[in-house]
Amino acid sequence: MAEQEEKTVCVNRKARHDYFIEESCEAGLVLTGSEVKSLREGKANLMDSYARFLKGEAFLVNAHISSYPAANRFNHEPTRSRKLLLHQGEIQRLAGKVKERGLTLIPLRLYFSRHGRAKVELGLARGKKLYDKRETLRRRAAEREVERSLKSRR
Questions:
Q1: What is the pTM (predicted TM-score) of this model?
Q2: Strands (E), the chain
Q3: What is the pLDDT of residues 16-41, one digit of tens each?
Q4: What is the fold, at CATH topology level, of the domain defined by 7-128?
């Protein structure tokens, strides 16, 4: 089979608005067949989802993957917790940072890798305050204005 490029299923755009992303990592997902088929159709939402550590394992909580209509009685629950596939050392490192520094682990995007595996990009994030969000919007507006003035001069 020819290797293709990554296919993005969904992006958590609200994450970059609400959080400062300090670092990101990639993790695999344990999914059922109907979940994979639904993801291939692009029916997923990462809004309000996060990663949690329980008994030395990582789980993606509140990620919504719509049910697959053709799966009838073998369908999955749309917002079930899904296990994340990470190396044990990586789980311990991320869990330590989340516990110590008050950071949270949020999904940034859900995609299929070049090899056809479902992956999630996780971001180690610190929450923004309201004034941080306003500052970001101001900076973006100023950059847009500079671009507009440079474009009109050309």
A1: 0.82
A2: 7-11, 19-29, 44-45, 50-54, 57-61, 64-65, 82-85, 104-112, 118-127
A3: 889 999 999 999 999 999 999 999 99
A4: Small Protein B; Chain: A; (2.40.280)
